[in-house]
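Title: Prediction job returns without error message
Component: structure pipeline
Severity: low
Priority: P3
Assignee: unassigned

Description:
Job completed but the reporter wants confirmation the result is attached to the right record. Sequence as submitted:
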Amino acid sequence: MSKKEKKKKGFWPWLRRFIRRCVVLSLRTVLFAVMFVLLVAAGLWLLFLKTFNAQHISELITEELQKRLDRPVRIASLDLTSLNTIELKGFSVLDTQGAPGYALLSADSVTLTMQLLPLLNQQLVIDEVSLNSPRFNVVRQADGTYNMPPIRTPKEQSVYTSELTGRKFAVSVEDWSVHNGVLSYKDLASGVSHALYGLNLHFERLRFDELSRFQMEMILRNKWGDHISDMEIQGTGHVNFADFNWENFALRSLRTQVFLFQKPVDLLIDLDNLRTPYFNIKASVPAFESKDLSLFHSKELGFSLPKSELTAQGMLDNDYRLLKLNQVTLSAADVKATLSGQMNFAQAPFTVDVNASTNFFDLSGKSTYYPFLKQYKLTGQAALSARVLREKGQYSLPLFTAQSKKVSGLFYGFKADGVDGEFQAKQNFSDLYARTTDGKVTVNKSVFDRLSLSASWRKGNLYAYIASTELNGVPFKLSLSVNNLKSARRKIRTSIYWKDLDPLAFIDTVKDFVTVITPLLKKGVKFKEPVDGSLAWLRNFRDRLPKFMPNFAGNLTADTFSTQVLSGNRFSAEFDFTGMRAGMKNLSGPLEARLEGGVIHQMEKLAEEQQALNITFQPFILMHRMERAGSFKVGQVLKDVPFNDMAVSVDFTNGKMQINNAYTVGPTISAAVSGWTDWVNENFDIIIWTMFNNTSRSGALAENLTDESGNPALAFRVSSSMLKPKLEMLRAKKTGQTIRTAQEQGLNTSFKAAQEFIKGDFHAKK
């Protein structure tokens, strides 16, 4: 065997011996260390047993808590469950006020976990105090006081003196925990009760005079009518118990989740002063539907809300019975709402006084969240504000306001397009006000463009003013008041102005309003089918008079006036009608009208179209034939004949019109009319005196065709049925005097009210 082989063979036994010795040395070291730790632990345990007596500690804790809480405290037993753990069993604090004899606070056990090494330095450091399955019972008594005791904490650090050794130990507690606790609240005055279940709390390094971090989770149980709701709550934050001086209590950055809907509501809460708490809350609310609130309502309300953000600042006063909301803001989609007010739970029943408002938001698409808006087909922008009250158990809406920008929609048959304005409702919509400054409103076929309107509804009375608009392209102005609208004896007063008035077009507009408004009154009106032929204009008008205008008075004015028969300028009329209903059978009241600077149109043509006009114009037709024979020249009598002034004063009695005074004065023809016309039975009896002023004689005239001044004149009577009238020629000698008398008599009004309306700028009052 070589020298190299000998060396190689001796290395491996040496390595084995070296490893064996290292293992043995390590085991000895570990065993020594373990024995040393056990000896130290045993020494500490003996020291703890020598220093602390379980029964004495139990008595000390009982005495200390009774002194701090001013309530009887019971502890069934105290056990040392492990080297560093003490367990208090059967722990309870008895109530002496809200429910005497019952436990204000009870727990299956209270566990104290300690550190052993600080005992060597006369320090008792409790790592954690755990309340296992505690039950807190808070009661609000009928006089408004609570059964919560005043908690007293010492200013100096707690110190315990050993009974056996006489040594003093400084006592400190690091963490506090509540496991599976229950907090119940009962109001003896109102019978309201709430409860928190599954309450788990953990306070890290809790100091009662500074902010300390904590974690929590619980289930809040409430009773709403016959329903019981459970809300799961989880959160973390910081709390300062302020040595139980509740006026200095503070809760900071409490982040919590409340599982109210399918998705949780995230909350961030700051709270100060438990006597009169000031709070600041921020909430992130998930999208939800009305069915999620089925707990609070017996049926679904049919709405949904998008994801929203809410902030609330306020305070609780009067023993938590007065909630003051300084500012609440809610953001959902493009809607931002603010709210302020208070809720007073000290009154029975509780009261509410809240004001709310929004920014301008888009109306289009809102029917997705509120399906009942779909019927209005809304577009444009709006801003809302309201005041909500609850008094004597009833909610009310003292004020609601809506402002609009370029709003379009369909409102009970009235079609709006691009309307700027404001709507205001008071006293639960019993007092209404609306105003528009621009936009277009269509009523059936009538179009009001560039509409400046104001209207109000108060105590059953309607007031409406159209300061300016274009009605079917014609400038128009209106003042309207309806007293006792819902009564069959309602009174309607109006002032109306047109730039250009076409009576038949006006009748169509009235018909359009009747068509739209009648369904709102829930009383259907069926019109007769339009007719053609003789007197169609009368019959169609008579059959379409609005039934809802039993007492109708006012004035009408127009810069120009035009019909098939005549046209002119500066038209004015005043009327005071009763019984203005379809059929005209009850139409009664006076009518005064005047027209200046006008023209009587195409007598010959109209005489061919209407039988009544044929008979009325027959004398003029005869004179025209005589004129063509060369007897005299009176001008273009049967074509367009001008006049300077035309006026009429009549009284209706059950559809029969009595002519009080009527005259026409012009450069070619002047006339006066008397008699009556029965529009219901379609007959008449009128006398017409006519004198021709612009004449040139070329032959002799019969005596019955001249005035006493020698001017050509006619006097004739038209009577009987309008379809088959009778014509009777009368002596014309007093024609000129009759016309002058009619002019001098004039009318019974100066149309002052109409002129003031034209010049004024009238608006409904808010």
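Comment from assignee: result matches the submitted record. Residues 206 and 630 are 127 Å apart (CA to CA).
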